[in-house]
Amino acid sequence: MSSDIHADFDAILHDTTSGSSDIAQRVCQVLKKVPLHDLAKNVEKILEAHASMAAVINAVNRTCLNLERDPVPTPRDHGDRVIEDFWRENKDRKHWITLSNSHGVRRCLAAAPHKLEIKVGISHPDTEGVLTAGHLGKRHRVTIYEDTKLVGEVQSADAILIGTDLITDDHIVNKIGSLALALGANFFDRPFYVMSSGEKFLTPDLSIFFKVKIDRSGNRLIHYFEPVPRQLVRHIYLTSPPADHPISATMRELGEARIAGEENGPENI
User: Are residues 134 and 184 in the same domain?
Assistant: First the structure.
């Protein structure tokens, strides 16, 4: 790869604060410039770096299909209409809570027809909530809270809106702190909403690449993401249809290699 492409690729691998939709868009742009003989190894690096982001997994697969001459259309965005519907239903709600750094959430809150009071969880360990606060603070009154204090603000909020990194039939997966907010919203009878693209759904063939991110630092486990049961979510707003593309040849080979590695791991020898 050229030095420019290598720098862009390296920035994607080490990005710990951007939302998954933002990273997915950049992944598509960079992979299109990667030589075909280097595609598989670079795809594997991206999938390892962002294994907790379904949108990135789908973006990688879609780009591989296009490079393999099996083109699929870019998902059709109807977010403007969805956001208009959202604010018609929430026109009287001015006090909101969110956390982390979701493109869909930023887009929705920025488009509110009136000025909002927004409380944003800082989202440790990478503090990406600071980016959300900076973006929304251009129009709304925004206060950043430590994650442990944010749930205490649910009672005084009108509603909670978060993004997600995966949607299944049983749960969503989002940054740590999401479950506490969902439970608090349920207890105080506040609406708990999710704003997402359809790229957060994974087909069975692609699900093998998804893994909830956990790091270990000495005897300390650092959890980045957690599941939230769907029954705690009042409504999921989708800004595009659910992803439903076939698996690319590149990712099928990588998936088969992973399965073989798991079957032949030390615990099975």
Answer: yes
In sequence order, which ranges of 77-211 are alpha helices (DSSP H)?
Answer: 79-89, 103-110, 129-136, 147-150, 178-188, 204-207
In a domain, 92, yes or no: yes
Number of domains in the chain: 2
58 shares a domain with 162: no
pLDDT string in tens for the chain (269-residue length): 567 778 889 999 999 999 999 999 999 999 998 888 889 999 999 999 999 999 999 999 999 999 998 888 888 999 999 999 999 999 999 999 999 999 999 999 999 999 999 999 999 999 999 999 999 999 999 999 999 999 999 999 999 999 999 999 999 999 999 999 999 999 999 999 999 999 999 999 999 999 999 888 888 888 899 999 999 999 999 999 998 899 999 999 999 998 887 766 554 33
Which residue among 30, 49, 74 closes a domain?
74
Domain boundary among 50, 74, 98: 74
Domain coverage including residue 181: 79-238
CB 193 within 8 A of CB 161: yes
- In whole angstroms, what is the distance from residue 103 CA to residue 244 CA? 21
What own/partner pairs with CB < 8 Å and gap ≥ 24 does 56-60 have?
56/20, 56/23, 56/24, 56/27, 57/202, 57/206, 57/209, 57/210, 58/24, 58/199, 58/202, 58/206, 58/243, 58/245, 59/24, 59/25, 59/27, 59/28, 59/199, 60/27, 60/31, 60/251
CATH number at residue 158: 3.40.50.10470
Same domain for 62 and 161, yes or no, is no
